Amino acid sequence: MLDISDLHVEVDGIEKLHDINLHIGQGETHILMGPNGSGKSTLLKAVMGFGGYKITSGSIVFKGKEIIGMPIHERAHLGIGMMFQHPPTISGLKLGKLLAATSHLGSDAIEALAQSVNMEKFLTRDTNVGFSGGEIKRSEVLQLKVQQPDFLMLDEPESGVDLENMNLMGKEIAGLLEKDVHIVNRRKSGLIITHTGYILDYLEADQGHVLIDGRIRCHGNPREILRAVKDKGYGECLRCQQM
Ligand SMILES: Nc1ncnc2c1ncn2[C@@H]1O[C@H](COP(=O)(O)OP(=O)(O)O)[C@@H](O)[C@H]1O
Ligand SMILES: [Mg+2]
């Protein structure tokens, strides 16, 4: 579904991602870990096509199409969706209007999806304005439920979420990724950035990757990587790779 090859990305004239290679098949979920500032969010934003993230070499092929140079809305139409680590607040744009503009669903269907994540009272409020941490994340999940992207990039879905909301988020994300469908028939794939690994309590991930200083240093079993990082820190990934 997604093939990133030899990708180099610059921000403000400084190379932040070096030689990234990542291949995510249909139905697969991959986990991305790494210390603060290592470039995890930068990678997702480069795939989504945000301005300011300049691709100096490499390729990003999604569903067989090179997407570098394609505007964000075309990437979204192709089936790429993203949950932000720090979503913007948008004064003057009601959440219900935003949802209606990003899908072909009617207002009843949107209302039903909003109810499923306890957001029905928020449709008439300005998007994310004054929302609590949990409400912002539920708003993000709702936007993805409405958009139904085939490839989901989730940037730290656990951050700022209390335990009760985490339970809801975990189940909803597993649903968005069609984890209840056998991998042979599953259409959805995902790339999830996680610090805590809590999300792994709710869904199985197929592969884990560790990004340090803009380079992917390790690929492997997500739970084993999480355990190693919890026990020994990211320094262990560098030591391990040198060996
Ligand atoms: N829009 C931007 N302008 C300037 N620097 C940026 C921008 N986005 C990211 N960076 C820098 O790139 C580095 C990687 O950031 P980021 O991808 O957010 O890290 P992570 O998500 O792994 O914590 C950091 O040093 C950050 O300050
Ligand atoms: Mg980040």
UniProtKB/TrEMBL annotation:
Record flagged with keyword ATP-binding: yes
InterPro entries attached to this UniProt entry: AAA+_ATPase (IPR003593), ABC_transporter-like_ATP-bd (IPR003439), FeS-cluster_ATPase_SufC (IPR010230), P-loop_NTPase (IPR027417)
Key word DNA repair present: no
Gene3D superfamilies named in the record: P-loop containing nucleotide triphosphate hydrolases (3.40.50.300)
Coiled coil: none
Recorded GO MF terms: ATP binding; ATP hydrolysis activity
Domain ABC transporter stretches: 2-238
Annotated CDD domains: ABC_FeS_Assembly
Keywords: ATP-binding, Nucleotide-binding
Protein name, entry field: ABC transporter ATP-binding protein
Superkingdom field: Archaea
